[in-house]
Design a protein that fits this description.
Elements (H helix, E strand, L loop, with lengths): L1 H19 L5 H16 L9 H32 L12
């Protein structure tokens, strides 16, 4: 049951969390936390998850992906700019 909870419930929450995590009311956060506490109490997981922790993990993952994409773009741009200029053969005059 641990695998089922992790693969279905937690992964679906984590997938959508960056999009809707900031719009969740305190009441709904409490409901989600209660569901996660019940999952631990009934033995579906050995790890106690909480909404704030999942939100922080999702934000970190999103931010690190964005930073990695920016680094790749900067690397590509600087590599292209550092190459010697290319003059097409048709532009050369003899």
């Amino acid at each position: 049951m641990v695998v089922v909870l992790q693969s279905i419930v937690i992964s679906k929450v984590m997938y959508a969390l960056p999009a809707w995590g900031g719009y969740v009311s305190r009441e709904n956060i409490s409901r989600i936390d209660k569901m996660l506490h019940k999952a631990r109490r009934y033995g579906f997981t050995s790890t106690l998850h909480c909404f704030e922790e999942l939100l922080e993990q999702a934000d970190d993952k999103l931010l690190s992906g964005t930073v990695d994409a920016c680094r790749a773009m900067v690397h590509t741009t600087t590599t292209l700019l550092s190459r010697p200029s290319y003059t097409p053969a048709c532009a050369l005059t003899y």
